[in-house]
Specification:
With 199 residues, the chain is mainly alpha-helical. It has 2 domains: 13-107, no CATH class; 120-195, no CATH class. The chain is built from 7 helices and 4 strands, in the order H-H-E-E-H-E-E-H-H-H-H. The protein has helices spanning 13-27, 50-56, 101-107, 141-154, 159-173, 179-185, 187-195, and strands at residues 75-79, 96-100, 124-127, 132-135. The protein has a two-stranded antiparallel ribbon. It has a two-stranded antiparallel sheet with strand order 3-4. Helix 6 (179-185) packs across helix 7 (187-195).
């Protein structure tokens, strides 16, 4: 993971997402300051802003820090504060993170994942040859624990993610593409290669 800079709310968001969503919550008598009643399916008004979310965050999964093509259909709106726990956050742009479907399904409503908006430079380290991701050993214990919890919860160090990161670096080293392409496709790998003086 790398730091994700929060982007401004699109001009159309209030009319397309927030107001229809709040109207629906009011119609269903769901209190904004309470968790959503169990088994309640909230109206998915946020889908109307997925294209805006994708454009605003340049097509990067907030958790994997890799670019994905919109045409693949894997982009989702992750509610960082779970909509089941905070109805008032279900239709708020500032609560949305662009995420690939796998990361969104792993995060679900758990609260032990660090917010990409709050990730700091150097929180996550990468072993470029193997693709292994781990917490910066120099972090204080509380911060290191939060990073490790995020890695475990999201499966950031599973075999598929390791292979993907290692492949990006190896293909760059083998000359398949240049540094700008690496930065565009996998900014975390690019940042770590820079930090380690390997670009």
């Amino acid at each position: 993971m790398i730091h994700v800079q929060e982007k401004p709310e699109p001009a159309s968001f209030d009319a397309q997402v927030r107001q229809p969503g709040l109207t629906w919550l009011n119609k269903e008598s769901i209190d904004l300051d309470q968790p959503v009643p169990p088994k309640t399916e909230i109206k998915a008004c946020w889908r109307a802003c997925l294209d805006d979310l994708y454009r605003s965050y340049d097509g990067y999964c907030a958790y994997l820090a890799v670019f994905f093509e919109r045409t693949t259909g894997v982009g989702t709106v992750d509610h960082f504060v779970a909509k089941s726990k905070r109805a008032d956050q279900a239709y708020e742009w500032k609560n949305y993170r662009l995420a690939c479907s796998r990361m969104n399904s792993r995060k679900r409503d758990y609260e032990d994942v660090i917010d990409p908006f709050h990730v700091l430079e150097g929180d996550f380290y990468l072993e470029l040859i193997s693709g292994r991701i781990f917490a910066n050993p120099g972090l204080v214990d509380e911060r290191k624990s939060k990073i490790n919890d995020s890695i475990v919860r999201l499966g950031l160090d599973d075999v598929w993610n390791r292979e993907m990161r290692a492949r990006y670096y190896q293909e760059y080293r083998q000359g398949y593409y240049n540094e700008d392409f690496l930065k565009r496709r996998s900014p975390f790998v690019w940042k770590e290669a820079n930090r380690q003086g390997l670009l």
